[in-house]
Specification:
The complex is a heterodimer. Chain A is α/β, with parallel strands linked by helices. Chain A has 13 helices and 15 strands. In chain A, the strands form four sheets. A seven-stranded mixed beta sheet of chain A has the order 2-8-7-6-5-3-4, sandwiched between helices. The chains are: A alpha/beta, B alpha+beta.
Chain lengths: ~450, ~130
Amino acid sequence: MAYSPHTDADRERMLAAIGVASVDDLFADIPSSVRPTSFELPPPMVEQQVRAELARLANLNRIPEISFLGAGAYRHLIPSVVWEVIGRSEFSTSYTPYQPEVSQGTLQSIYEFQSLICELTGMEVATASHYDGATATAEAALMACRLTHRDRIAISSAVNPQLRRVLATYCSGPGIQIVEVPADLAEGGSGLTLVGAAAAVLDEGVACLIVQHPNFFGGLEPMLELGDAAHAVGAQLVAVVEPVSLAMLEPPGAYGADLVAAEGQPLGIPLSYGGPYVGLMAAPMSAVRQMPGRLVGATHDVEGRRGYVLTLQAREQHIRREKAASNICTNQALCALAATAYLSAVGPRGLSEVAELSTVQARHLAAAIEEAGLGERRFSAPYFSEVAVRVPDAARRHAALAEQGIVAGHPLWRDYAELGDTLLLAATELTSDEHVERLVDALKATA
Amino acid sequence: MSSYPDDLRYSKEHEWVRVDGASATIGITSYAADELGDVVFVELPAIGTRLEQFASFGVVESVKAVSDLYAPVSGEVTEINDALADNPELLNSDAFGAGWMARLTLSDASQVDELMDASAYAELTA
C-alpha cells in the first residue's frame, strides 16, 4: 500500500478550514520557553552513556524528605499486596477487552471496583472509572445537563481550582455556561460555600450545583443545605468527594447528592507527578442511561453460573457514535484495580483508621503551629485532614523550607488573591509527630 | 403486505401521527417496533418542549439497537406517555395504541398533508 503524506496544499486547506494561519499556531498554548528551537539531535550514545545521562537527569528531581502537600493528591501507605495484584501480567499488560465476555477476570475486577465505589458513596451505580477526579467531575456536570435539559452549571469557588479549569475546558465546546458561587473567605470566615450566594445564582436554568466536600481548604460543607438550595429549583447536587473521608463522613447518597465524582488516587495509587490517577463516578439507577463510559453488570449464564458482561452499551460511542453519553472518556482499569486491591486489603476498619489518623495528625499540625505562635488557622469551619494556616511572610519561608527538603503545603495565594500568606497543609497517616516537629522548627528558624 | 390504521398519517422515519383538532398524538409504527426487536427503553422529551418536524425528539433502545425518534410534525409537547417508562414493551405489543409517545399542540396543521397515508406507508414497508 502506498504511503501518501499530506501535501502542502492539503495542509493549507486543513489550516484554512479551522481558521489557523500556520502549523506553529496549533502549538500556541505551549509556552515558547519549553518549545524546541531546533530538532538537531545529539549524536548516538552507547548504552552506558545513555544510562549515565538518564541518571544525571533523574538526580535533578527534588524528592522532598517531608511533605505536607495535599490539595487534591495525598500520600498514603500502599500495602505491598496492591503492587502484587496490579503487577500480574494478566492485568498489567492487557488493554481494554474488545471481546469483553471472554475476559471474565477483567470484568469481575471492574465489577468489584464498581461495587466498592457504590458502597463507599452510598449510591446505586458506579462507572468502571474515568481518567481522574477532574474529568469525572466534568463528566458528571455534562450528565446533569443531559438529565435536566439545562445548560448552565453553578460551582463553588471552594472547589479545587485545577478541577474548575478542567470543567471550563469541557464546557467550552458545548457552550455550557459556568457560574461561580463564592465561598466565605473573609477574615474570620468559615471558608465554606455561602448557602445564600448559592441560592442567589440557582434558578430554573441551572443544571447542577457542584460542591467539593471536604472542600479545597479541607472544610466540611453544609451539604444538606446546599442540596436543598439546588433541589428547590430542580437542579442536581454534584458532590465531589475524597474517598478516604467517606470512611468517616456521611456518604453522599445519605445527604441527597444526585451525582458523585471523586479523585480515586488516595486509594492505593502513588504520587507520580500527577498521574496516572483514576476518576470515580456514581449515580442513582434512574440516571444510568445518561452515565458516560463503561459499566460492568453481573448475570447468570444458561447453566446458572455467575458471569459478568459489559452492560447498557447503547450509551457508548462504539454503538451511538456522536450521540454517545460521552466521546471523551475511558476507564482507567489498572488504577481502578489498584483501588480495588487497596480497599480490599485495608477493609472498612483499616480505611476508618486511615481517615481518623489523618484527621488527628491534621489537628496536631494546626495546634503545633498555633502553639508555637508561628501562624493561625485561616478558617473557622470544621475540617477533615487538610487545614489552611496563615503564616507571616509565607512565600519566603515556603521557599526556604523547600530548600531544606520540607514542602510546607500548597500556597493558596496562587489561586486566591484573598488568601495571602496562607498555606494549605495536609496530613495523612504517614505524617509523623517528628514531621510536624521538623516543620515547626524549620518555620521558627526562618522567622 | 401489512395494513396500517387508516386514520393515521405516516413519515418515512416510521413515525405516525393522529390529528384531533389542534392536537396531535405521535408514536412509532408497528413496522419500526418489529424491526427494532424487544424495546427496553424509551427516552421522551419534557412537557413544554417544542418539536421541529423531522428533527430528533427522543431515543428508543432495543436489545439490539438504539435509534433516534423523529417528530412527524412540529408542535409543543403537552403530554407524554409515562407508561412507557416502566413498560417500554408496549411499543412492541400495541404501537398504534397503548404505545403512543407524546401529545402535541400542532404548530402547522398543513405539515400533516405532507405525510403518507396508510396505503402509501404500506407500500413503503412492503
